[in-house]
Write a structure and sequence with these properties.
Blueprint: H1 2-10, H2 20-25, H3 30-42, H4 44-55, E1 66-67, E2 75-76, E3 81-82, H5 84-88, H6 93-96, E4 100-105, E5 111-115, H7 116-132, E6 140-144, H8 149-161, E7 164-167, H9 174-184, E8 188-192, E9 194-197, E10 200-203, H10 205-213, E11 221-225, E12 239-241, H11 242-246, E13 258-259, E14 265-269, E15 277-281, H12 284-296, E16 305-308, H13 315-327, E17 331-335, H14 346-354, E18 358-361, H15 363-371, H16 375-378, E19 387-391, H17 397-407, E20 414-417, E21 451-454, E22 468-472, E23 482-483, H18 487-495, E24 503-511, E25 517-522, E26 526-529, E27 532-535, H19 536-544, E28 549-559, E29 563-572, H20 581-593, E30 601-605, H21 618-625, H22 641-649
Parallel strand pairs: 4-17, 6-7, 6-8, 7-14, 8-11, 11-12, 16-17, 16-18, 18-19, 19-20, 29-30
Antiparallel strand pairs: 1-2, 3-13, 4-5, 9-10, 14-15, 15-23, 21-22, 22-24, 24-25, 26-27, 28-29
Helix pairs in contact: 3-4, 7-8, 9-10, 12-13, 15-17, 19-20
Bound molecules: adenosine-5'-monophosphate-propyl ester.
């Protein structure tokens, strides 16, 4: 009994129906959503096929919607032809040519408005520059740039000529960049002198030079955008300035009409082994997912000003900056800097200045800004806002309520959107004019998305508040197509557990008695730091690459702002002293992988808790890192005394 009452206290009972004023102006009304759901339930494939015909401008129409003959390698709209950049730009020129596509704000507050016509011209010019350097359909181009219009132009220029881009987030280190270039066998790298954030310049070209110094033999050309004044070294015959590459190129470039399944991009993400996975997305299916979710969930309309605060280096920036909003002709803000520079009200100041109406950010940013106090948002009216969104990790109800009350002024629905690099677009999320929201829940699957929670045997979990594996039981157009160069790993990772049709997301989830989903977190060895996925194995590999380290195990523990923080248990080699080494190792990991992977804490010990078969017992380490009492069975532990040492070593 006592336990029951504790559970019901923890259960979220607050529910927020959509404000009627919002519903009145929303794209989807309750009857529209019902019609979509009914249609999807009656004919899953036909539902998506009709949307693909309505939402995409095809160069050649498709005749077959889904080819599942080689499941889990699904093909959507395979015999159709299109160009994604054409859909994002050209089709707006007649009706929206002078409409602002991008409002760019730089770190120092410089602002530039770019119309659809201007964006189209820039993309064509740069696409011609890529062609002049010998880049064509199917070639891989790595983009390692600051967040801004040049990155968007580079991505769309690749799409225009059928080249496959792989954007590497500007915070990644030289070894990470090198791994990604080599895995993709990229012929070209597009970068900039530096990344200007928070009043500081982080060098990019210099890091790229390090990456290219040993290996990366596939790279023939490096195009460098001069964003600021950082000194860079240009290598003769290989490196060229962006403006020189563009010089003399025309503002028109015939789009390359590609097959629907032609890969639009690769984006690397962490998995449970050390090697990042190159998630490969298609052209048409991905575009369709981007379009419908920007309409259904973000409710983007003709007069909205959208702002997704993600960097284009992540999937969120791909779908909710570069492709989705442009494909539907929206106006959006693109921001180079950080939320706390020059002051902690930067986001709110920008919302007022640019009249942002739809705002999409990460729980980690909300928590960080919440800690700074209400005085900062109160300096600004925030009147233009009508819809708020979150993505990347579970949002704790406290942060949700703050976002609702202090930013949304209790007037803006909040869409908590669950999805992944692999899913391409939002999957489980509220429809803002229809769904009553609950803090901490991403609510229900979108129409045409067959999300379910299953137990170990693959049976649906029907009881409320009982966790299980989050799965998607039918293919959907914007799903990943494979892991670049590793189809076996694709099959094994996502379809290895419940067969060729059931996509396993890698998250645990539960549903309440009204069927609302709540995401509980990863079930594999992936941690989520500030909304970014990191494989614990990647951090472990980086640690053991240090000459003083013999063995390492990495786990996470909850963190107030970051969501999760990384804790590393390290065994040193015989003659290494631990003095000053924790700091050195933290810096080392940042250098190897990038600053986001820097461990919060390092604990040294003589050994790790292992089973008799030599497996590290991570669940024990997790308890140790969290300072919890060990209640798990330790009878299979080979070296029980080590636990005590680990528990005290951090203090
Ligand atoms: O664990 C889930 C968490 O982020 C993972 C996907 O990370 P990534 O591929 O980097 O994409 C992030 C942006 C789409 C998921 O497996 N996650 C994402 N959104 C949510 C979430 N967890 C809870 N609630 C969310 N809304």
């Amino acid at each position: 009994m006592a336990q029951d009452s504790i559970e019901s206290v923890l259960r979220e009972n607050r529910s927020f129906p959509p404000p009627s004023a919002f519903t009145a102006g929303a794209r989807l009304k309750p009857e529209d959503l019902k019609a979509l759901r009914d249609k999807a339930a009656a004919d899953h494939v036909g539902f998506w096929a009709d949307l693909a015909r309505e939402e995409i401008d095809w160069h050649e129409p498709f005749t077959q919607a889904l080819d599942d003959s080689e499941a889990p390698f699904f093909k959507w709209f395979a015999d159709g032809k299109l160009n994604v950049a054409y859909n994002c730009l050209d089709r707006h020129l007649e009706t929206r040519g002078d409409k602002t596509a991008l409002i760019f704000e730089g770190d120092e507050g410089d602002v530039e408005h770019i119309s659809y016509r201007e964006l189209h011209a820039r993309v064509c010019r740069f696409a011609n520059a890529l062609k002049a350097k010998g880049i064509g359909k199917g070639d891989r181009v790595v983009i390692y740039m600051p967040n801004g219009p040049h990155a968007v132009v580079a991505m769309l220029a690749c799409a225009r000529i059928g080249a496959i881009h792989s954007v590497v987030f500007g915070g990644f280190s030289a070894p990470s960049l090198k791994d990604r270039i080599e895995d993709a066998q990229a012929r070209m790298l597009i970068t900039a002198d530096g990344n200007y954030r928070g009043g500081k310049a982080v060098p990019l070209k210099e890091v790229a030079d390090k990456a290219l110094a040993d290996g990366c033999d596939s790279i023939e050309t490096v195009i460098v955008h001069k964003r600021g004044g950082l000194d860079v070294r240009m290598q003769d015959g290989r490196d060229i300035w962006w403006t020189d590459a563009e010089a003399g190129q025309g503002d028109d470039c015939e789009p390359e009409w590609v097959e629907a399944e032609h890969p639009l991009f690769i984006l690397y993400t962490s998995g449970s082994t050390g090697k990042p996975k190159g998630i490969q997305h298609s052209s048409a299916g991905y575009l369709l997912g981007s379009i419908v979710t920007n309409k259904w969930v973000m409710d983007l309309q003709e007069n909205d000003v959208h702002w997704c605060t993600a960097d284009v280096g992540w999937i969120t920036g791909h779908t909710y900056i570069t492709y989705g909003p442009t494909a539907i002709g929206a106006t959006q803000v693109v921001f180079e800097g950080v939320p706390t520079y020059p002051e902690g009200d930067r986001f709110w100041k920008m919302v007022d200045e640019h009249k942002v109406s739809v705002f999409y950010t990460a729980p980690t940013a909300i928590r960080a800004l919440m800690k700074l106090g209400e005085e900062l948002p109160e300096r600004h009216s925030l009147d233009s806002l009508r819809l708020l969104g979150t993505v990347g990790e579970p949002i704790n109800p406290e942060a949700w309520m703050w976002y609702h009350r202090v930013i949304g002024k209790e007037r803006c629905p909040i869409v908590d959107t669950w999805w992944q690099t692999e899913t391409g677009a939002q999957m489980i999320a509220p429809i803002p004019g229809v769904t009553a929201t609950k803090p901490g829940s991403c609510t229900h699957a979108l129409p045409g998305i067959a999300a379910d929670i299953v137990d170990e045997s693959g049976e649906s979990v029907t009881e409320s508040d009982k966790g299980g594996y989050l799965v998607i039981k039918e293919p959907w157009p914007s799903m990943l197509r494979t892991i670049w160069g590793d189809p076996d790993r694709y099959k094994q990772t996502y379809f290895g557990k419940f067969g060729d049709r059931v996509y396993v997301a890698g998250d645990a989830a539960e549903r309440d008695d009204e069927g609302y989903f709540r995401i509980l977190g990863r079930i594999d060895d992936v941690v989520n730091v500030s909304g970014h996925r990191l494989g614990t194995m990647e951090v472990e590999s980086a640690l053991v690459a240090h000459s003083a380290v013999a063995e390492a195990a990495v786990v996470s523990r909850p963190h107030e702002v970051k969501g999760e923080a990384i804790i590393a248990f390290v065994i040193l080699k015989g003659d290494s002293g631990a003095e000053g080494l924790a700091e050195e190792l933290r810096g080392w990991v940042a250098e190897q992988l990038g600053a986001i992977a820097k461990p919060e804490e390092i604990r040294f010990a003589d050994g790790l808790p292992k089973t008799r078969s030599g497996k590290i017992m991570r669940r024990l380490l997790r308890s140790v890192a969290r300072g919890e009492e060990i209640t798990q069975d330790t009878s299979t532990l080979e070296n029980p005394q080590i636990l005590e040492q680990l528990q005290t070593s951090g203090h």
